Amino acid sequence: MQYGPRLQAVAVYLWHGQFLSRGRTCEAIGELFGVPVSPGAVTGMITRTAGALGGCLEAIRRALAAAPVAHFDETGFRVAGKLAWVHSASSGKYALITVHPRRGREATDAAGVLPAFVGIAVHDAWRPTTPTPAWRTPCAMLTRSASCRPS
C-alpha cells in the first residue's frame, strides 16, 4: 500500500518529533486516521524522508559554519538500550541536531559544523567545543569563544 505525503509527515513527526516508539507511531496513525500501518512501512517513510533532506541539511551545515556566533551542546540518551549522544549546533534561524554513538571529536566532526566554524562558539566549556592550544580540537581554529557555564 502507498501512503501520501501528509501521512508520511505525520509518521516522521510522531516517531522523531514526539519520540514515540515505532510501534506506538503505528498505533497512533491507525487510531487517528483509521489506516493500519506496519512498522516496516513507517521505517520506509522515515528512510525516504531522510533521503530527501540531504540538500537541506548541507545548506544548514554551511549556514551554521558561516555564522558569526553559534551555540554547541550535547546530551546523552538511550537508543535501543545503548547510550548515544545528541549533538546540537544552532545560530539564529538554523539548528542542526545529530545523533552519534560517541561524545567527542569524532561525533562533532561527523556533525560537520565545527570543523569549518570560525566564529564565536558559545558552549559549556566541554573540551571538544573549547579551543585549547595544547589539544587540537575541531574548533582549534576559533579565535574567540564564550562559555555559557555559570561562573
What is the element layout, followed by pairings?
Layout: H1 5-17, H2 22-33, H3 39-52, H4 54-66, E1 69-79, E2 82-91, E3 94-100, H5 105-111, E4 120-123, E5 144-147
Question: What does this molecule look like?
Answer:
- This protein has 5 helices and 5 strands.
- β1 (69-79) and β2 form a beta hairpin.
- Strands 3-2-1-4-5 form a 5-stranded mixed beta sheet, covered by helices on one side.
- By secondary structure, it is an alpha/beta fold.
- It folds into 2 domains: 5-52; 56-147, no CATH class.
User: How many separate domains make up the residues?
Assistant: 2
- Total beta strands: 5
Rg, Å, rounded: 18 Å
Average pLDDT metric: 84
Q: Describe the biggest sheet?
A: 5 strands, mixed
Question: Low-confidence stretches at least 5 residues in length (pLDDT < 50)?
Answer: 131-143
- Helix run count: 5
Distance between the termini: 58 Å
Q: What fraction of residues sit in β-strands?
A: 15-25%
The ordered string of helix (H) and strand (E) elements is HHHHEEEHEE
Outline, from the CA principal axes? elongated
The strand order across the widest sheet is 3-2-1-4-5
In short:
The chain has 2 domains: 5-52; 56-147, no CATH class. The protein has 5 helices and 5 strands; from the N terminus they run H-H-H-H-E-E-E-H-E-E. It has helices at residues 5-17, 22-33, 39-52, 54-66, 105-111; strands spanning 69-79, 82-91, 94-100, 120-123, 144-147.
Question: What keyword list fits this structure?
Answer:
151 residues, alpha/beta, 2 domains, 5 helices, 5 strands
